[in-house]
User: What shape does this take?
Amino acid sequence: MSSWYWWMILGMAVVTYIPRAIPLTFLEGRELPEPVQNVLRNIPYAVLGALIFPAVFFIQENIWFGVIGAFAAFGIAITGANVMIVVLGSIALLAIVSGLL
Amino acid sequence: MNGREFSDGVKAGTSIAVGYFPIALTFGLLAKTTGLSLLEATAMSIFVFAGASQYIALSLITGGVAPVIIVLNTFVVNIRHFLMTASLNEKMEPDDKWKKALYAFGITDETFSVLATQKNHKITTPFAIGVILVAYASWVVFTSVGHLIGANLPQFLQAAMSIALYAMFIGLLVPSMRGNRKVMSLALIAGAINSLFYFTEWLSTGWAIMVSTLASAIFIEWISRKGVKAS
Assistant: This one.
């Protein structure tokens, strides 16, 4: 691959870094209005919802794969298990399921 | 640097490292089939460190799309991190600007989720660096490993591993959701709006996630304000 590839990487690196860095460096020490602070506190849970749905159902062409995986993860998580157990447990279950299919 | 905080961060970041393993591995595999060298594939993971945009870049390279468009696309996909880091700033302990500028590089969907859902009141810089270092190491190393091993991993295992990141998101969300209707509504409404965008294809993935997150966060804030006034 030629030199354009490295320019592209540089460009990708810059546009990825900017939205990550500006709020952390420029907002430091500035009080935001209370409603804005509240909205920002809501964001972690909202973004998790958007990251999970609907993408979790389409991890494989067979939609059941994602459905079973999502329910497995949910089931393990609701028992209060550690995140690592949730991840490894649902991988193990899907490995068994795809072995059976 | 506070060693205790740092090692707690490494521990918290390990679940991300596990989640990244299959995705980075697959990225390495795909990069190889796209025609990138080991060095080029690994360099992209080292300098960009953004899963979704790297995958999209590969498919755009295959499609012969101009590099400038690939960069623009990366920007649109990653603009959601602006929201995340603005939100995270509320939770982080104040520290030197250069330190924050340094760990800002490592804020991804996953490191953000782990940091933002920590129960402690303020998150220290060493903790954040611990989380980010272990995640980043996994991402970079397994990109190379994926490129090197080719498609030698059994197919059923590759398929099963595609659940990893979502399982992690679920594992982070569920404990905060239990007995908390606000958290549950925030996640469900955002997921519902994002599904709407997904099926109608009105917005590309990056924008869809950003708009649904904001809409849900603002809506719930608006509802709870009204509730306070009414009572």
